[in-house]
Design goal:
Radius of gyration: 19 Å
Number of strands: 17
Largest sheet: 7 strands, antiparallel
Order of helices and strands: HEEEEEEEEEEEEEEEEE
Length: about 280
């Protein structure tokens, strides 16, 4: 999610309807994925079939069948993904959607200023959109949390454990929203996206205009922007690519926040790559 300094203006409004493509990521900190050579081929997919689990299909040019990836989500009991208000209707739940839609938080503590947006990021990218539960104030001191599980199948339907796995996440950002209106804490608009994996990444590369983040990208030390106020600029995108030498089927990814922020947050999975054996 991306609030800019001026209250009431967000990148959601600026980019609605804008075209977006998956950026080319330069991996300065690691060797690139193996190109198609011999019996090994790198497969790429950016578009998911919506559902829980969401489904990705990878069809190598030199193979005889398709590999499947199923991404299932479990949302923590203290986390909210659905909302309605008088201005926009609902309830709407955009979590695990594929249309670049989500809820954006604003200043009023009761959610009356929150609004849905669409067309942010690539159409077909799997979206995560959440906040902590609460109506006029957070219901607890906990951070929002959901856990994704990645399950891979080879063309025969057997479990597959990919190597040279890459996942690119769009819009890991942070906003320390300030509202001078009496009685407004702005809690719904404050967030700090944080992403961690059960399998430690071998490298993390940032693209677009993003400054390098902090955190090792593990469950205990999730990756996030280095400060609590790094929103996506109007003309560029934040993309962070996590690379793994191996990523066993059943590996998990958490989406949460660090610090004391609990408001609406949004990321999407922009692209997935891994190596397969085709002969």
């Amino acid at each position: 999610m991306n609030e800019v300094a001026d209250r009431g203006l967000s990148r959601r409004a600026i980019v609605q309807g804008a075209a977006w493509t998956v950026p080319v990521i330069a991996l300065a900190t690691s060797a690139p994925l193996a190109a198609a050579s011999g019996c090994v081929e790198t497969v790429t997919q950016a578009v998911a079939v919506q559902g829980n689990p969401a489904q990705y299909t990878f069809t190598p040019a030199g193979g005889t069948g398709s590999y499947k990836l199923f991404v299932s989500s479990v949302v923590d009991s203290g986390t909210e993904t659905s909302q309605a208000n008088a201005a926009h209707g609902g309830p709407f739940d955009f979590n695990m959607g594929v249309s670049g839609s989500g809820w954006n938080g604003e200043g009023p503590d009761d959610g009356s200023g929150d609004y849905p947006f669409s067309g942010f990021g690539e159409n077909g990218a799997l979206t995560l959109n959440q906040r902590v539960k609460g109506t006029t104030a957070p219901a607890s001191s906990a951070a929002p949390l959901q856990t994704l599980t990645f399950t891979f199948q080879d063309p025969a339907g057997a479990t597959y454990n990919p190597t040279n796995f890459q996942i690119t996440v769009f819009d890991i950002s942070a906003v320390n929203f300030q509202d001078s209106t009496p009685g407004f804490s702005g809690w719904r608009a404050k967030y700090r996206d944080s992403v961690g994996f059960s399998t430690p990444p071998t490298s993390i590369a940032n693209g677009g205009s993003a400054l390098p983040g902090i955190g090792s990208g593990t469950l205990a030390d999730p990756y996030r922007r280095a400060t609590d106020n790094e929103s996506t600029p109007p003309t560029l995108d934040f993309t962070d690519t996590f690379t793994f030498s191996s990523f066993p089927s059943g590996s998990k990814m958490i989406y949460t926040q660090v610090g004391d922020t609990q408001g609406w947050q949004f990321i999407s999975i922009a692209q997935i790559k891994f190596d397969v054996t085709v002969c």
